[in-house]
Amino acid sequence: MKLNFDDEKPVFLQIAEGMEDAILTGVFQEESQIPSTTELSVTYKINPATALKGINLLVDAGIVYKKRGVGMFVTEGAVRKLRQKRKDQFYENFVSRLVEEAKKLEITDVEIISMIERGFSK
Questions:
Q1: Radius of gyration in angstroms for the set of CA atoms belonging to the chain, rounded to a whole number
Q2: Close Cβ partners of 49 (under 8 Å, ≥ 6 residues apart)
Q3: Which of 54, 65, 69, 56 is nearest to 46 (CA)?
Q4: Would you say residue 49 has pLDDT above 90?
């Protein structure tokens, strides 16, 4: 995970998204332990409260949970939840905008599909 301190995105969001990416790519399996907020703060040279804020976003979303006295763990079903969340975001951030622009340009759905297929074949 890389943090960009010059990015407009707050560091705690970058922490949360970086952990999500690690879970989605299998770096952290469901029911496995993730780094503590102390480990994150030392590794990335950030305030522990910032790391905690990022991890708490994952707790609130049901992606990770705390075992008292042991640490934080990936929830069973976290990958499924994250994939659905990211698919919803993908639709909102890209597909809906694509369709809106296509309508302005009078591009048909068949033409859009053709363009997407062309992109995948490259």
A1: 18
A2: none
A3: 54
A4: yes
Indicate the length of the chain as a whole number. 122
Listing DSSP states for 27-96 in one string gives SS-TT-B---HHHHHHHHT--HHHHHHHHHHHHHTTSEEEETTTEEEEPTTHHHHHHHHHHHHHIIIIIH
Query: Cα(117)–Cα(66) distance, rounded to whole angstroms?
Result: 43
Q: What is the pLDDT of residues 79-110, one digit of tens each?
A: 999 999 999 999 999 999 999 999 999 999 99
Which run of H or E residues covers position 19? helix 11-24
Matching residue, tokens 């999500």:
20
> Could you report the per-residue pLDDT of 13-30, keeping only the tens digit for each?
999 999 999 999 999 999
Angle of CA points 64, 70, 50, to nearest 5°: 55
Q: Could you tell me the pTM of the whole model?
A: 0.82
Q: What is the C-alpha to C-alpha distance for residues 39 and 2, in angstroms, rounded to an integer?
A: 15
